[in-house]
Amino acid sequence: MPTISMFYGIIIRLYFAPGEHNPPHFHAFYNEFKASVDIRTGEVIEGSLPPRQRKLIQAWVELHQEELMADWNLVMSGDEPFRIQPLQ
């Protein structure tokens, strides 16, 4: 599962698997928390994150939604995703 971005202690990863299920999503890790996050909405669809980290991730998704969808399409085709700029 390649790491595509890291910021404020949050690690963002995409599964490198053509069979990954919809909706388009990524996996966010923060300390003992982990969640699947919908790329289209920035909402947590599985798992949990602290409120502050959830808001940071939503802001990051808004800024990088096109890149996230491009990476999703790459991994669904079996290709390696590109790294995405962290939230600054």
Discrete helix count: 1
Please tell me the total number of domains: 1
Please list the strands of the largest sheet in the order they lie side by side: 1-2-3-4-5
Distance between the termini: 24 Å
Silhouette: globular
- Report the β-strand fraction as a percent range: 25-35%
* Rg (CA only): 12 Å
Average pLDDT score = 93
Major sheet characteristics: 5 strands, antiparallel
> Helix share of residues?
25-40%
Structural write-up:
By secondary structure, the protein is of the alpha+beta class. The protein has one domain. Strands 1-2-3-4-5 form a five-stranded antiparallel β-sheet. The radius of gyration is 12 Å and the shape is globular. The mean pLDDT is 93.
Question: What's this entry about, in short?
Answer:
This protein has 88 residues and is an alpha+beta fold.
Secondary structure elements and pairings:
Elements: E1 3-7, E2 10-13, E3 25-30, E4 33-38, E5 44-48, H1 51-76
Antiparallel strand pairs: 1-2, 2-3, 3-4, 4-5
Keywords:
88 residues, alpha+beta, five-stranded antiparallel β-sheet
